[in-house]
Specification:
Strand content: under 5%
Number of strands: 0
Structural class: mainly alpha
Number of helices: 4
Shape: globular
Number of domains: 2
Order of helices and strands: HHHH
Distance between the termini: 62 Å
Helix content: 55-70%
Length: about 110
């Protein structure tokens, strides 16, 4: 009888790299004193409730889209990132990733 233990790789905490990135940016902004975590949690909870009225949330992309929506709204409210700036930056990123060869890092001009 063997006492061999089979190790399995842990499940990833984040399904997509951008999930981890938006989480990390939010934590960094909180740690830098840009907002209080209880305020963040209330705002995010409200976003989830509002988005959950239209469909059942599955905890994947929809969860992190709600996270990003909350962060964008908070930054806009604080005057750090207005909707026009966010829209321009989203367009620049989309153009950059669509024109970047596969396997190469995406860079903004």
């Amino acid at each position: 009888m063997s006492n061999c233990i089979t190790a399995t790789a842990p499940e990833p905490v984040f399904l997509e790299p951008w999930h981890a990135q938006v989480f990390a940016v939010t934590v960094a902004l909180n740690e830098a004193g840009r907002f209080d975590w209880p305020d963040w949690a209330d705002r995010f909870s409200n976003t989830l409730k509002r988005n959950g009225l239209n469909k059942e949330l599955d905890g994947g992309d929809d969860y992190f889209h709600a996270w990003l929506e909350t962060l964008e709204a908070l930054l806009a409210e604080q005057g750090d990132a207005g909707q026009d700036e966010v829209t321009l930056l989203q367009g620049a990123w989309e153009k950059a990733y669509l024109t970047t060869p596969h396997g190469k890092p995406v860079r903004l001009p």
